[in-house]
Amino acid sequence: MSYRQGPGDAPVVLLGHGFRGSAAQMTPFAELLLDQGFAVWSVDFRGHGQSPPRVVTAGATEAHDLDAVLRDLRKERGDLRTTGYLGLSLGAAAGALSELAPQLAACVLIGMYDELDTAIRRRFQLHLGLDPWPADWLFRRCAEWRTGIRIEHVRPVDSLHRFDPNRLCLVFGRHDRRVGPDAPIRLRQACKEPVTVLFMEADHQGLASLHAAPHQWQRIAEFLAEHLGMPLSLPGESSR
């Protein structure tokens, strides 16, 4: 399910929320972008928000939801040359795994894991504080049975080479223990050329707050404005 706000002829930024979130989770980002004059589309991925209950797959099948919205947007506008994407956590992984996202004018992927198998193991280590085997192994097998997806095949790190590095921005939290210290290095190395990389003084949950690093959020707005051809309003001004 998708929602839209803002002027119909303005460049669009599509927002993709995180795990257990919804389009409502992205409201602060939507307001920031609307203030800059963008149109904003938001999506409730399957099993989230107002979408029908479905098994959640950490970005693998949610990428199909994103592509469905992008196809609608392309049909309405003729192309995706004035469309950007901002994805958070699960939404970032969905963006990396999306078929159509590499065609966008700009992509901002925030708090993204490199490969799902490693992300699950790290999550168990955070909660158990010990070697997570065999709990993580049992969880993965159960998840694969429920979803029909091989977890070791869900690897956003292997998809980044499809993106134009000049139009890609990767954002990480310096204290994000869910993603861990190695993921930012591997994701940057997976790109064809150096990409825009921003670090926030935040943990994983803090990445969802505009208050965590206001200067970095301003840089994200500038990145989107540059690639979508929007004049950027000064702080405190509103173009709505």
Give your account of this protein's structure.
A 7-stranded mixed sheet has the order 1-3-2-4-5-6-7, sandwiched between helices. 35% of the residues lie in helices and 15% in strands. The mean pLDDT is 91. The chain is built from 7 helices and 7 strands; from the N terminus they run ββαβαβαβααβαβα. It folds into 2 domains: 2-115 and 156-228, Alpha/Beta hydrolase fold, catalytic domain (Rossmann fold, 3-Layer(aba) Sandwich); 117-153, no CATH class. With 240 residues, the chain is of the alpha/beta class.
Summarize the structure.
35% of the residues lie in helices and 15% in strands.
Short key terms for the protein model shown above:
alpha/beta, Rossmann fold, 7 helices, 240 residues, 2 domains, 15% strand, 7-stranded mixed beta sheet
Multimerization state:
single chain
Distance between the termini: 25 Å
Instruction: Give start-end ranges of low-pLDDT stretches.
Output: none
Number of strands: 7
Strand order in the sheet with the most strands: 1-3-2-4-5-6-7
Using the coordinates shown, work out and report the CATH topology of the largest domain.
Rossmann fold
Q: What is the H-and-E element order? A: EEHEHEHEHHEHEH
The average pLDDT value, as a whole number, equals 91
The CATH superfamily label of the largest domain reads Alpha/Beta hydrolase fold, catalytic domain
**Helical proportion, percent range:** 25-40%
* Whole-number total of structural domains: 2
> If helices are DSSP runs of H or I spanning 4 or more residues, what is the number of helices?
7
Radius of gyration: 17 Å
